[in-house]
Design goal:
Layout lengths: L1 H17 L6 E10 L5 E10 L2 E7 L7 E12 L1 E6 L29 H8 L2 E6 L9 E6 L9 E11 L27 H21 L15 H12 L4 E5 L2 H14 L4 E5 L17 E4 L18 H10 L12 H5 L31 H8 L3 E4 L7 H10 L4 H7 L2 H6 L17 E4 L10 E6 L2 E4 L5
Parallel strand pairs: 1-4, 5-6, 8-9, 9-10, 10-11, 11-12
Antiparallel strand pairs: 1-2, 2-3, 4-13, 6-7, 7-8, 13-14, 14-15
Helix pairs in contact: 3-4, 9-10
Length: 469
């Protein structure tokens, strides 16, 4: 009899353990809720169940439901970073070759990295992590959710193939000395032009691979031999199966991208950087697949002011040679400069040293403080970045608002639009029923510089701060 009772108790306990417990419901209340789609709810409540938003409404939370109350707080969607280099443990590029289309940055990501804490402190709950800019074809980025572990940390492992167009792949490279390669960086590209040539050759080889189905006779002009998998990735780009993310800052590099796209008929691509996007080609206006533009913290008193950077040596010499300054930030030796009289010698005996007094100059990357607003007036699918390892998105949006961007568009540029760009628009980016409960609670208006972050919720769990109210 005793054994029978024991068996009954065990069966009952096992059935109880097998029965799923009802998820605890959570209510988050605030003075204002900015949903990210233009809707503003005053004195509103967000109901969360099992990490998902179930209801958003104006009014008090239901009785008996655990609540997080912020009587003076403003609640916005969790920020979505369209470009970061956060949580990378080790090199951000494969260094054995310049052409590395099969490289995956996901293999270097560390969920315990200090960048993760920084992301949450800045309100970032979803982020695209790209490889570095050192390689001609850099490999695949990844999408992560800071504050999550295991399978929930990396959402997309192979997301967009990065191809930088500009000076970055050539930095540090040099021509091989007599007798062959002397060090790993004595290789192409060593110039901006060589970078573009290697991109073109890679896609020409991919065309041949599509036609023949064989890698025989196809070799890189840089260290390393093609593998079938590498050519398959490039072939998938030409077939429209893989999205390409070009990175370019200067206007001339953006034009180069469109020439490459036309030459190889690349159907799926977007552009990141766009420091000079405000003066970019009209084709930027019609790009529906999304753009990512960088905002920099410079003098906030003059909208439209050119960015002034410390003068580099070659630019210092160019100024000394011509003594001419003009409005074209891409030019170093234009015809006007060439015809200008030479600068007479200085008090250093004709040698212009780094200590000499020189006027302000216009750098190659001519950024304007209202550049983001100008570009977004041309293309509404524009996400905001700041070019940092962990971007300060709220600060960048505040600068954009200060120089003409509407607050509604600014919020969309750091929430809804980047979520749509990285393919997660159905789950994050706005506050709506059915979406992940990724929320940021602020002490006031999101676009006031004195506003601070009070709390960050990731998937309905408080991720920042870990302790305290």
């Amino acid at each position: 009899m005793r054994h029978t009772a024991t068996i009954c108790v065990c069966v009952a306990l096992s059935l109880l353990a097998a029965t799923p417990l009802a998820a605890e419901e959570l209510a988050v209340t605030g003075a204002r809720i900015l949903t990210g789609d233009g809707t503003v709810i005053t004195r509103g409540t967000i109901l969360i169940n099992n990490g998902k938003i179930t209801r958003v409404y104006r009014g008090a939370p239901p009785a008996g439901v655990r609540s997080l109350r912020f009587p003076k707080g403003t609640i916005i969607p969790g920020l979505v970073a369209a470009s970061t280099m956060a949580a990378i443990q080790g090199p951000a590029n494969e260094q054995s070759s310049e052409i590395t289309p099969t490289f995956e940055i996901a293999g270097t990501l560390d969920p315990t990295h200090r960048d993760i804490k920084r992301c949450l402190e800045l309100g970032i709950t979803t982020a695209y992590v790209r490889p570095g800019l050192a390689n001609v074809i850099g490999g695949f980025g990844a999408v992560i959710r800071p504050g999550n572990r295991g399978q929930e940390f990396i959402v997309q492992q192979r997301s967009e193939l990065l191809i930088p167009v500009g000076p970055w792949p050539a930095v540090g490279n040099g021509s091989p000395g007599w007798g062959g390669v002397r060090n790993p960086k004595a290789r192409r590209p060593s110039t901006r032009l060589a970078t573009v040539w290697l991109i073109r050759k890679s896609f020409y080889d991919a065309r041949k691979f599509i036609q023949s189905g064989s890698i025989k006779g196809l070799e890189k002009e840089v260290p390393g031999a093609y593998t079938r998998a590498e050519l398959q990735v490039l072939a998938d780009v030409l077939r429209g199966k893989t999205m390409v993310r070009f990175y370019a800052q200067a206007d001339k590099d953006v034009h180069t991208i469109f020439r490459l796209v036309d030459e190889f008929k690349i159907p799926k691509f977007r552009i990141e950087g766009l420091v000079e996007g405000y003066r970019g080609p009209k084709r930027l206006d019609k790009m529906s697949q999304g753009l990512i533009a960088e905002v920099y913290d410079i003098d906030p008193t003059k909208a439209g002011q050119e960015l002034r950077l410390p003068m580099e040596l070659h630019q210092l010499l160019a100024w000394w040679r011509t003594g001419h300054q003009h409005a074209d930030e891409l030019c170093q030796f234009c015809p006007a400069c060439a015809k200008a009289p030479r600068r007479p010698g200085t008090d250093t005996g004709g040698a212009l040293s780094s200590r000499s007094t020189v006027p302000a100059y216009t750098p190659e990357y001519g950024y304007r403080v209202n550049a983001f607003q100008v570009l977004m007036s041309r293309n509404s699918q524009l996400a905001l970045s700041t070019g940092e390892r962990v971007p300060t998105l709220l600060e960048g949006a505040r600068l954009a608002v200060r120089h003409g961007l509407s607050t509604r568009k600014a919020l969309a540029a750091i929430t809804r639009i980047p979520a749509e760009i990285i393919g997660l628009g159905k789950s994050v980016g706005t506050i709506a029923p059915g979406k992940r409960a990724d929320l940021v609670v602020l002490s006031g208006d999101p676009f006031e510089f004195t506003t601070r972050i009070l709390a960050v919720l990731s998937n309905g769990r408080k991720a920042y701060p870990k302790t305290g109210n």
